[in-house]
Amino acid sequence: MMVDSRTRTMAVLIVAYRSADKLNSCIASVRRYLPELEVHVWDNSGPQCSDVRRLASDVPDVHWHLHGDNIGFAAAVNRLAAMVPGQDLLLLNPDAELVGPLTHTRAAIAEGDTAAAAPMLSDDGGDEPEPSRPLSRTHQPWDVAHRRRTVLNALGEVAMAAERSRGTWLSNLYWSQPGDVDGYLTGACLAIRREAWDALGPFDEEFFLYGEEADWQRRAIAAGWRIRLADERGVRHSAQGTVAGDAKASTRSSDLVHASVALQLEYHHGAAAADLYAAGAYGIDGLKRALHRDDSRRPQSDAVLVVDGPQSPSADEIVSRATVLADEGLDVTVVSLRGLGSLPRELPPAVRLLRRSWWWPRTWPGDAPTTLLAGATGRERAAARLFRLRRRGLRVESIEPTGRPAPSRPMTTVPNLDLESI
What we know:
By secondary structure, the chain is α/β, with parallel strands linked by helices.
């Protein structure tokens, strides 16, 4: 029996990141299918991009929040949700477009035990999906629904085996269309019941980008709420459409995906599971590159900086030094040995940011930086020692926290310290 959702109010929340043309199409689709709903847009594009601000002047009937700095997706959603108290939430990616009024999705969250619901993907064909077949790489409309995250199915996703092994322990995708979901629904188009949001609290802002909706739904399931896939094709979505054509932004996006999965696994299964995933993802990526003999897109680094997470005493100094080196035109990678925390907000987008365990601090297979900088904690020193193995001619500097910005210096003056000094 379908519950009448018309008695419940809902607000559409969109977190924008560049790509004003896609955002414009997204807003137009809301106006076409859900014209009665308020639309709130938070711009995370950064001060260098004015496209979204120009769009705001052309579309005045939207509530625009143009603050300039990129505070992260989770933080932006939390701020928007706080502006619409008492209303259900419809999270919509700026590179997504509605293809219907989401009748079944809204009816699902109108039922009192449902925390979140989402429509299936539309391929514009209108045909019934083909049944799943073993080893097939076909995407299914219900692939917005994911099974509970494990280390094995997370690594299967990195290996691009999710579709071919769907329904098995190597995949987080369902074999057939589910009703209730035991993992999570992707946030490209996600309806959230206000009572559940208020009961569970907002998104965890430790997730800068990706994974925040999965973590929130994990908490919902643990608290006894239902997560449901609606029986309707309601959205069209171009994955990573907002960073298409920008190599550095695409690399940062991909690295944040890995870091987010590691954090989810840490919350589910402990830090050892997160470290195992990070090392396994590195190995799988390296193997794929070797098999395809493709070095054209391999990120390289002139300098690598190792920090023991955002709470390390040397974190401010690492951020300052990485920023200076990037401003000098060098390719810089920061390796965090714990979670990322505020590092994605503090480091320039041009700086590569990875999460690694201290016992696996590598950046990329074959990467040969000329300089290594690390903090002075035991884990940072241990990671630096391991990083130096089999690397000849690597200049090394130990960074002590000073509490003030690091001065700019040419790379040629970075001292070549002995292994024992770090």
